[in-house]
Amino acid sequence: xxxxxxxxxxxxxxxxxxxxxxxxxxxxxxxxxxxxxxxxxxxxxxxxxxxxxxxxxxxxxxxxxxxxxxxxxxxxxxxxxxxxxxxxxxxxxxxxxxxxxxxxxxxxxxxxxxxxxxxxxxxxxxxxxxxxxxxxxxxxxxxxxxxxxxxxxxxxxxxxxxxxxxxxxxxxxxxxxxxxxxxxxxxxxxxxxxxxxxxxxxxxxxxxxxxxxxxxxxxxxxxxxxxxxxxxxxxxxxxxxxxxxxxxxxxxxxxxxxxxxxxxxxxxxxxxxxxxxxxxxxxxxxxxxxxxxxxxxxxxxxxxxxxxxxxxxxxxxxxxxxxxxxxxxxxxxxxxxxxxxxxxxxxxxxxxxxxxxxxxxxxxxxxxxxxxxxxxxxxxxxxxxxxxxxxxxxxxxxxxxxxxxxxxxxxxxxxxxxxxxxxxxxxxxxxxxxxxxxxxxxxxxxxxxxxxxxxxxxxxxxxxxxxxxxxxxxxxxxxxxxxxxxxxxxxxxxxxxxxxxxxxxxxxxxxxxxxxxxxxxxxxxxxxxxxxxxxxxxxxxxxxxxxxxxxxxxxxxxxxxxxxxxxxxxxxxxxxxxxxxxxxxxxxxxxxxxxxxxxxxxxxxxxxxxxxxxxxxxxxxxxxxxxxxxxxxxxxxxxxxxxxxxxxx
Length: 649
Hints:
It is a single chain. The protein has helices at residues 11-36, 46-67, 69-76, 85-116, 124-130, 134-144, 146-165, 181-200, 222-225, 228-235, 250-256, 310-316, 331-340, 363-367, 387-393, 402-405, 419-430, 467-485, 544-551, 620-641; strands spanning 2-5, 166-169, 260-261, 279-285, 320-325, 373-378, 398-400, 437-442, 494-500, 519-525, 533-540, 558-559, 574-578, 581-586, 589-593, 598-603. An eight-stranded mixed sheet has the order 7-6-8-4-9-10-5-11, with helices on both faces. Strands 13-14-15-16 form a four-stranded antiparallel sheet, with helices on one face. The two termini are 50 Å apart. The model is unreliable at 1-8 (pLDDT under 50). It has two domains: 2-235, no CATH class; 276-641, Alkaline Phosphatase, subunit A (3-Layer(aba) Sandwich), CATH 3.40.720.10. The protein is of the alpha/beta class.
């Protein structure tokens, strides 16, 4: 047994030793997790496993410090009473109990992972409290997988044994009253700071989360990087989705609004003649509401509306253009919708939700095996909104942010690199990228506080909204990007998709309504191609992924909560979720659904200010749209909660 003088600064050794034992057990359980599920990770090499172990320490340490926060505080309080026997015994009990509880899901997931394909998250408590069969299922689990229970008990025995080997011993020559107050307070401050930094996972912009694990490995092996105490704690207060059954089974819902896609050969003439693999460039424009775009607002009622996007107006004349609908109101919601076909139909965005550890497909994960180079560009500070972690989890091989740009003279002082130089950097980088490539870029200059570079002060119209000056600046940056790209050898072989992440604040009355707050451009452009003309049906952000794959003649199955715009059959609609209410826009109509009934139904084309609610009429059109929203909700909730966002995971 190891005795440490309790009146000495060496008492911190006891604290660190006990924490080291608990950390070792958390990390060791990762190897058990892998060994019992090795067939589920067939491509893991010894080197990759070592890297995963090292990367996993960041999450293990965060979990350890979160679990042991109370124990750590008890041991660093700079007061004499914290050294007496009763106090120390109480601390040991707390240490053993909390770590035993924390280790339990790590061991349970050795088996449970086979059924969920993800680490246990905070929604496990919803299951535990509503499952009436828990009393019979838990004993059955112990019976069927007794060896896991034995390993868990063995780990707890080790924890108790080693913990009891380290004790503080009273020393009459150096009692606690003589303990250096300065040293005690210094230890308190330093260890408190270390604990907080460790819980955050470092000094980066945002604390680490489930999606951060995507920085270290591909989506399929993310569960090896994470640990179950971490995933539970990080998601404990997050709302989970309840499974719903508007339809008798999911197959009926799927038949009405398909989310599993497989293109076996389109008869659309727009897709003929492209046997090569064209490049794909997706430009996601910060806050580019439809309201700001002149070409999308010129009609009989406002023929003189000039808008704030002269270049985009000219590009629209040479492109296939749709009445676009955003699937969310924030950038963190728009990116997964565009790149993964995943709308945010819950109260929390997917990237930070309890489901961030789910397997999901994306344009990058599907096209990379087909030989595409994949990259994502965002001029913001690396780590902003978790985009770097999300895009890596989504399968993008390269991420280029402010750090990679590495020219701080172009920093706007707020968000990142000004759009004009960053888009030039984007074009130059693509020119060095192996073809075929899939690349997405997300602009940022049209974000609040809506600044423009000093050289452009007073050069743009400001309009009625502050943002419209910066919209004009980004539009100019787009003009110069296309001028540069058009001189490059890959330009004619590239499909460009332009859209917005979400809308901005509105000025025109029609854009202040709920449907108006989601209207964005969705534009497909390819030089010297038949992709031209304004389309009458709705296209949402989640349509972009299946549309691109259809255009590329992608023949494998995948999941996306949208439809290819190159398929003429319905349904073509836009769905969004806000304040526990779903909105569907389709064929000029908008429907609001509260989960049980329609609360609003309008013919948006002629009633743009939503003055005439037709919900009481229960028209065939309304009933049809209700069926669509039920189909989407059922599939979304059930697939999200069941970790079924990929085909045959």
